[in-house]
Amino acid sequence: MRFLYASLLLPALLSAAPTARAHAFLDHASPGVGSTLRQAPATISLWFTQELEPAFSTVSIVDQGGQRVDGGDAQVDTRDQTLLHASLKPLPPGTYKVMWRVVSVDTHTTEGTFTFRVGG
User: Fold this and answer.
1) N or C: which end of the chain has fewer CB within 10 A?
2) Which CATH architecture has domain 23-118?
């Protein structure tokens, strides 16, 4: 009898537990993570798994020498708040490092990096 009550009580307790809020993780990007492009892109776009806080979300891109190659204009898209984008300066062939730091609407901060390559 105790086993029956315990087996009924456990699911009820678990369903009453508060749901954990997720962080805004990188879902996909353009250019893609680890991609090689024939032509340099004019912009970079990063999509996340949650809406972002525009005032606290940014991305920067540097070349192999550590020099910034983005336009310094990173912003969350007003129509899709899971999208963060920035313009890029003309990029010669090489490897570029993307560094992002975002705050989701539930106030969790995440950050990460990836690279992409321009040219063969």
Assistant:
1) N
2) Sandwich (2.60)
